[in-house]
Structure formats: structure tokens, C-alpha cells
């Protein structure tokens, strides 16, 4: 898979690409990440990529010419009939696990990192094929969101994590075989424990030490359901819950109400 990242700060990615999962994926050949300095595609000798917004207002706006020239240069000679061009923007659709899984099916993706007050609207309308946001907040630029998108997508590629089913057991994994098998499709992850079994009087749940795989599976599913209900109840609104799951949630609701009454 190839990521072409268009940015005015290519050096921003130096440290990110030298550590952890991204470094491993690059070394293993599962991905190529090519950084392109937007200023190289400016049309004047000062390498200008921004200008004041029409109509007034604070800040500067990315000009359309450099971004169009950059993407057109990347498309030149490309075998992809419809190369995905993603603009990182607060106005974009929210990056969720299902979106990362969708992008992981692509052979190549262009990521455009905005800055300042944003980019000329003609870029969003006529150049970008998609807009993505990593959350309902504003950052100074699209470099961090681009790194987040790449991390979320690259970890889904075959061979990157080593264990092909590892990512499918993550929180928010909706379409994965592993999450369905665990019976916690789309729920937050269950609690994890490791040695020692007794840390300052805080004990590992006995069921995890029992060796009974079916009891462990049931405990993990219940804990994932409970954790989701407590921390992200909004996720439960769109999940297909079975009768047993609904009964667990009803019991939780009842016990909570009884505690409040006391």
C-alpha cells in the first residue's frame, strides 16, 4: 500500500516514521509512505502556498493551485483509475474503525494536510474525493490527523501486526471475524490483566486463571458489554444486541437505580 502525503512540513513525520508500527510496516514492505512538500508545487518564485481569504477575516487560506498541481503530478502515469484523494479537515466524516477498514482495501491513497484557516473550497469540491476528521475539535494542521489515519489503516494490512486476528479483537472492530467470534461486535475491549496475580491486594479475576475457555469467553463478553454501557453508552444504540445482552443491560440498569435510591 502507498500513502502520498502532501504537506508543508514533511519533516514533521520524521520521528513518527522511525518508531513502532509504522517503522515496522515500512521495513517489512507492507507500505510505502512518500512525503511531498507542497511548496515544491507553488507557482511563484517565493513558493507561496497561502493567501488572505476573500471577504476578509483572520488567518490565511491554502491556495488551490499548489494542491491541484501536486495531486495532478501524483496522478500522472498512475495505474489507479480513481485514486483516493483525502483532505484532512474538521468538516470531514469522522474517522471510525469501519472507515479505516474501508481505506485498508485501497492500493494507494493521497492525504492532503491543510493548515492555517483551511484550504480553498475548490480543493474540497473539485479535487478531494473524501474528507476525514479525527474528532470534533480543531488542530493547527492536518499532519497529526494524517499520521492517525495512516496508523489506523496500516495496522489492518496483512502481516503488519503478525497475528492476523489481533486487530479484529480491538474495540470498535465491527466487521472482523474475531470480534464476531468473541461475541462483542463493536463493543469496547474487555479488561486485560497480566502477572502478578496479586498486586498490592488488587487481584486478577479468578475466572481468568481457571483455564475454562468458555467461562473466560463469557466473562470477557459480559465485561465488554458492561464497560461499553458505563463508558460509551452511545455505541449501544446502533449495535445488534441479542436477548442475553439486553438482559445484562437491564440488570445493570436496575442495579444502578437501586443504588441511587439507597
SSE blueprint:
Blueprint: E1 2-7, H1 20-28, E2 32-37, E3 50-51, E4 61-62, H2 64-75, E5 85-94, H3 97-103, E6 108-113, H4 121-126, E7 130-133, H5 143-154, H6 177-182, E8 198-199, E9 202-203, H7 213-231, H8 243-261
Parallel strand pairs: 1-2, 1-6, 5-6, 5-7
Antiparallel strand pairs: 3-4, 8-9
Helix pairs in contact: 7-8
Overview of the structural elements:
The protein has 8 helices and 9 strands. By secondary structure, it is an alpha/beta fold. It has 2 domains: 2-154, Alpha/beta knot; 167-261, Orthogonal Bundle (Trp Operon Repressor, Chain A), CATH 1.10.1270. Strands 2-1-6-5-7 form a 5-stranded parallel sheet. Strands 3-4 form a two-stranded antiparallel ribbon. It has a two-stranded antiparallel ribbon with strand order 8-9. The longest helix has 19 residues, at 213-231. The protein starts with a strand and ends with a helix.
Short description:
The chain has 262 residues and is an alpha/beta fold. It has helices at residues 20-28, 64-75, 97-103, 121-126, 143-154, 177-182, 213-231, 243-261; strands at 2-7, 32-37, 50-51, 61-62, 85-94, 108-113, 130-133, 198-199, 202-203.
Helix content: 25-40%
Order of helices and strands: EHEEEHEHEHEHHEEHH
Instruction: Quote the CATH topology of the largest domain.
Output: Alpha/beta knot
Number of strands: 9
Q: Structural class, judged by helices and strands?
A: alpha/beta
Overall mean pLDDT score?
90
Cα separation of the termini: 57 Å
Shape: elongated
Amino acid at each position: 500500500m502507498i500513502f502520498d502525503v502532501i504537506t508543508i512540513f514533511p519533516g514533521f513525520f520524521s520521528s513518527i516514521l522511525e518508531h513502532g508500527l509504522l517503522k515496522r510496516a515500512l521495513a517489512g514492505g507492507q507500505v510505502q509512505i512518500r512525503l511531498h512538500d507542497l511548496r515544491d508545487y507553488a507557482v511563484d518564485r517565493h513558493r507561496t502556498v497561502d493567501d488572505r481569504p476573500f471577504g476578509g477575516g483572520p488567518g490565511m487560506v491554502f491556495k488551490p493551485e499548489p494542491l491541484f498541481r501536486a495531486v495532478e503530478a501524483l496522478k500522472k502515469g498512475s495505474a489507479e483509475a480513481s485514486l483516493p484523494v483525502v483532505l484532512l479537515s474538521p468538516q470531514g466524516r469522522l474517522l471510525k474503525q469501519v472507515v479505516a477498514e474501508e481505506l485498508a482495501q485501497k492500493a494507494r491513497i493521497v492525504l492532503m494536510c491543510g493548515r492555517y484557516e483551511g484550504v480553498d473550497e475548490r480543493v474540497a469540491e473539485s479535487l478531494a474525493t473524501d474528507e476525514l476528521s479525527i474528532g470534533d475539535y480543531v488542530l493547527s494542521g492536518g499532519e497529526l490527523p494524517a499520521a492517525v489515519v495512516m496508523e489506523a489503516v496500516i495496522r489492518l494490512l496483512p502481516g503488519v501486526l503478525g497475528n492476523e486476528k489481533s486487530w479484529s479483537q480491538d474495540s470498535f472492530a465491527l466487521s472482523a471475524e474475531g470480534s464476531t467470534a468473541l461475541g462483542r461486535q463493536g463493543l469496547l475491549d474487555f479488561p486485560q490483566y497480566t502477572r502478578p496475580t496479586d498486586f498490592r491486594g488488587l487481584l486478577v479475576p479468578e475466572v481468568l486463571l481457571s483455564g475454562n475457555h468458555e467461562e473466560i469467553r463469557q466473562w470477557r463478553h459480559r465485561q465488554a458489554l458492561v464497560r461499553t454501557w458505563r463508558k460509551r453508552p452511545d455505541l449501544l444504540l446502533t449495535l445488534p444486541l441479542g436477548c442475553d445482552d439486553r438482559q445484562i443491560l437491564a440488570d445493570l440498569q436496575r442495579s444502578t437505580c437501586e443504588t441511587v435510591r439507597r
